[in-house]
Amino acid sequence: MSQLDEIVQQRKSVRSYDPNYTIAKEEIEKLLRLASEAPSSSNLQPWRVIVIKNKELQKELRAIGNNQAQIEESSAVVAILGDSEAYKNAEEIFNQNVAEGHVSQEIANNTIKNTLNFYPNVPEETRKLIAAYDAGAFAMQFMLLAKDRGYDTVTMGGFDKEKFAKRFDLPANVFPITLIAIGKAQAPAFGTSRVPVESFTTFYE
């Protein structure tokens, strides 16, 4: 069994955290940087992140998050957001690809042109679905990286997204997707069963 296999199996949703344990801002930034290697549609990287380490703000957020104790007791809450207008960053992203030597300017220019021609004509709801899917890959990568470093996490979709958006003054194109509590477990997570692969998979050979 590889180390990655072990991390995937060890990661569980922890809901009880040591309220006195802290994680440095720099450590969370490192996790976010590595998580941003996740794939995304047209490489537009539509995830946006708010990290809440302030205890008073975590307490306030708990009221928005259905009174879930882990919001207040964890070392930090990482809010994963999506940007339905991420395509507007295409020029910056692909010119950076050129600067880093990944693609030629010609390829970048064609990609920018195609992106700016396509995405504005896609319905906003579809763009939000794309952003949510991509942000989900980012979130999963973040949680696995956290576990690899000895931290515990739990993802929470059960919070008042309208109140969250208002509290953090989100622009209309940026919307909350999930909250991730991160810290040190004070009590172990419950084990969970998994349905067999054959129950959800069809092979054509």
Automatic annotation (TrEMBL):
The keyword Cell inner membrane does not apply. It comes from the Bacteria. InterPro entries: Nitroreductase, Nitroreductase-like. One of its GO terms (molecular function) is oxidoreductase activity. Pfam families: Nitroreductase. SUPFAM superfamilies: FMN-dependent nitroreductase-like. Residues 9-184 form the Nitroreductase domain. Keywords: Oxidoreductase. Belongs to the nitroreductase family. PANTHER family: NAD(P)H NITROREDUCTASE YDGI-RELATED, NAD(P)H NITROREDUCTASE YODC-RELATED. This is NAD(P)H nitroreductase YodC. It comes from Robertmurraya siralis. The lineage of its organism: Bacteria, Bacillati, Bacillota, Bacilli, Bacillales. The gene is yodC.
